[in-house]
Structure formats: structure tokens, C-alpha cells
Amino acid sequence: MAKTLPKTDVVIVGVGWAGGIIASELTKKGLNVVGLERGRERKTEDYYMVHDELRYSARYGLMQDLSKETVTFRSTEKIRALPMRAYGSFLIGDGLGGAGVHWNGQTFRFLPYDFKIRSMTTEKYGKNKIPADMAIQDWGITYEELEPYYDTFEKMAGIAGEENPLGGKRSNPYPIPPMKKSPAMQLFTDATKKLNLHPYMMPSANLSQDYTNPDGVSRAACQYCGYCERFGCEYGAKADPVVTVIPIAVKSGKFEIRTHSHVRRIIHSGKKATGVLYTDVTTGEEIIQPADIVVMTSYVFNNVRILLMSGVGKPYDSSTGTGVIGRNYAYQVIKGGATGFFEEKQFNNFAGAGSLGVNLDDYNGDNFDHSGLKFIHGASISVSQTGQRPISNNPAPGGTPTWGKDFKANTLKYANRAITVGGQGSSMSFKHHFLDLDPEYKDAYGDPLMRLTFDFEEQDKELAVFISGKCADILKEMGANHIDQLKELGPYEITTYQSTHNTGGAIMGSSPETSAVNTYSQMWDYDNVFVVGASSFPQNAGYNPTDTVGALAYRAAEGILKYREKGGLLV
């Protein structure tokens, strides 16, 4: 028999960026909020002098234990899905702060095109440009409507950057200047300008200078140590929820965080949620937390899984195209890049920061003509210097043996003579790419695992090869003596890391027939349930998702306050 606790105003499931932002904003207005986090507590002191690449990068010290909970994968509905038991294609985080603790800090705004992709593509190229089985749709909100929330997130996080010449209009400049430009980045900048492209410094949540945000939170500047990705920041220079929004919520006295709390169900009566059921993983006790408002702010897979297990929202049926929970899963196509090897030039590749780089968007969104191309959208292209740690990086030109004398000679020679120009490609949603509950495999609590059905389409393969060619052109202009580039994108497989930019499953839109939530992240059919995060992306852009997740969280917080005052569906 589950123990029932006193009711709270709001219960938040998952305390990362989205959960931390919403807790901060709601407690400022006097609401009592409980935040349930299935992982352990984290603080900056945990990472003092812990540059342990083996523990965190190679052995995934900040990630979920896949022996207790994972996802199953299949490329089509015709084959059996199997559990992912070793980390590969993406890394599911665990603990207070979520992926906001171990992210790189790359903080891009989506393009205006991303939010109106179906209507703008059809208007420019005709409806036949979109394949019949492609499920892309407009978000129901425009870039211009979301822009103020982007601005709020960037000021809170202290984003360093310069304006994207091909991006949407900004109401304000970035709060602090861009980061330092390394020789490799300068070489990329000079080469791309000669090619009439439009490079700009990558927007960074790694502080370029000391900064105090509007909430009064002060943080020190980045030291360029190169330990951002998969690591917590020992300086607090990388914006994360644990050093920005969560302390503000806790300081209010209105926010209670319960770690080691594994939420398993949303409890509901009729079309209203009444709270959540969770298991205290330290004792095994089942606990019910009643609440007036339930806010799902966990990772994509967990948001969708809990909705499906709870019977909240209509499950997606790929055979009929009906239902909304689980539809429009998308990923990212980031294999379309190239690596250049230089005989004379040398670079200090081991220094860096998670979002130290130069980017361009000439081949992103619809910034170039797609009339003669067999794909839509595109990719951002960048050279980034995240810090090439020695275990994870050992570059050698194609054709080099993978062991022996020549392998040793080439990896020593090119350790500081290799530069990768990467393409982070968009991922269009398709009717046969979706999330549902696995009928066979269960987690440690006896609940069904999330099942992922996905594969690369011709759209992705054409895009990857096209972008790889553009990356190679840039490296040639940079003076590379040898260039390795992608020639063909094979089928998707879950064993090779590409990104953790999984999206969709509880998507945003303008109609309850084709979306799970409205533009305030409020569920259409359960108006006191808000689902916030990349799960609401109808398809994925050619960028990292965090800036957009942060913007949506600020808008959702505004919506929750409106709902608290007036009730009903928000417009």
C-alpha cells in the first residue's frame, strides 16, 4: 500500500534545466513545489580537481545504469527490438541537474524556418517536396513569439556569443562577449569567409568572463580546461541548473527536492491529474505525491514512457497515423563531416571548452536553395575545440593500420595536426519513427521499457553526404593535405555515439489531433499536466536543443501561472 503525502501546489518530475527553471519561476510567485529526481544530489564541489577521463568519458560516470533501466531498439516494425545494454548512440543522464550538468554548453537558437517548416517548405517548393511518409509539422508557435523566452534563458545562463548573421532577429545582444578564438578557429573563419560563407562564434554557456545574472547568481569565467562534455564543471563556469536556477528555487523556501525518487505513474481521475506515484529507490517504498499541477520535465524517453504507462493521452498508432503520445520521434544526423590532416600546421587541440568554436548556417534550415536536392533542411557546420582528451582522441588519416608501427607513427605525428569540420544535421520526423512501450522487456520495477523504432531515411543519407562535401571544401580551403570525409551514410545503428539530441514523442502543435501539447506545453486533454522538454519538438533542427528547451521552460512557467489563476486550456 503506497503512502500518501500532503498535497502540494505543483509536483515536478525530473530536476534538470526545464524542471529547475520552472521551480525557480513558480517559487518566485509563492507556489509550493516538490521536485522529484530519480538520481542523486549533485553540487559543484563534487568535481573539484576531478579531470578523470576514464571515469566520466569512457565509463559514463554521470549516466544512467543500463542494467536497471534502458531502452529497446529496432530499425523497423518487422523485427524484434532488443535492449541497449552498453552506451552507444546516445547517453541518458542521471542525477540532479540532468544533462545540464554534463552537457557541452552549445546554446543555439533554432531558425525561424524550424518553427514553420511544413508551411514554408510547401509555399516555396510545393507540397511534393515533402515525402508522403514524412511527418514534419509546424510547431504552432513562431520564432518571433518564442524570442523573448530565448532572451530570458540566455541572460539567466550568461551565454557568450555574437549575432548569427543568418539567424532570427534578436531583441538584445548576448549578455557577454564571445569566447577566445584559437588559431584553428581563426583558420576556419578566414577560409569560410574566402568561400563567401558567414562564420560566427558559437554561442556558449561556458562563461567568457565573470558574470552575475538577473537573479543575482555570480559565476567565474571559463578556464579552457577541456573537461566539459560528460563532466561536471569544477569552476561553475559552465551554466548548469545546479549553479543557476535550482539555488534560486531552494532559497525561496518553497521548493523541496527529493532525490532517489523514481516516478512511475501520473495518477489521474477523469481528465485531471491528481498527483504522481513514485518509488523511493533507497527503501523500495511506494509513495503518492498529490498535487494540483503535474509537470513532466524529465528526459524525452522518460516523459513519453510515463505518459504511456499512465494512460495519459492517446498512444500513437503508426498503422493509422492516429494518436499523439509517441509520435514524431527524431534524432540528429551528425555523421556528415570531414577531418583534415595538416603536414606543417600544428594546433593545441587539448585545450578547449565545451562550446568553444566557430559555426556557420549557410547550409542550415532553408538558407540555401533545395530545388535540385533530394532533401529538405540541412545542418550547421562548425569547427569546435572542446578539448581532445587523450583516451578518446587518437586521429590518423584514412588508410592507416589500426595497430602496429605505422599506427603509432601516424597517431603521434597527427595528434596536433588534425582538425574536424563537423556538420550537425537536422532530423525530419517520419510516420514510421515512433516511441512505444516494449511488450516484452521490463525494468527493475517490472515496468515496460521504452521501445524506439527508427532508421536513417534517404533524406538523411542525401543530407549527410551533401554536408560532408561542404565540410571537405572548407578543409581544402584551410590547407589540409589529406581529407577524410563521409562518402555514404549507412543504416542507423545504436552502438556508435552520435549525439544525445533525441526529440519528439509528446510534440507541440496547434491541434489536439496531431500534437500532445499546446504552445505553453500544456496537454490538450489533461489541462493540469504540462510536458516540457525536447519531447515537444515535432522534428529536430540542425542545432543542439538546450536553448530551445530553456525557452520553452520559461514559457511553460508563464503558462502554469496563468493556469493557476484562471484554469482551463491556455491560448
UniProtKB/TrEMBL annotation:
Sequence similarity: Belongs to the GMC oxidoreductase family.
Organismal lineage: Bacteria, Bacillati, Bacillota, Bacilli, Bacillales
Domain of life: Bacteria
Start and end residues of each Glucose-methanol-choline oxidoreductase N-terminal domain: 221-330
One MF annotation (Gene Ontology) recorded for this entry: oxidoreductase activity, acting on CH-OH group of donors
PANTHER family listed in its UniProt record: LONG-CHAIN-ALCOHOL OXIDASE (PTHR46056:SF12)
Keywords carried by this UniProt record: FAD, Flavoprotein, Oxidoreductase
Family annotation (Pfam families): GMC_oxred_C, GMC_oxred_N
Transmembrane feature ranges: none
Residues in Glucose-methanol-choline oxidoreductase C-terminal domain copies: 439-553
Protein name from the UniProt record: GMC family oxidoreductase
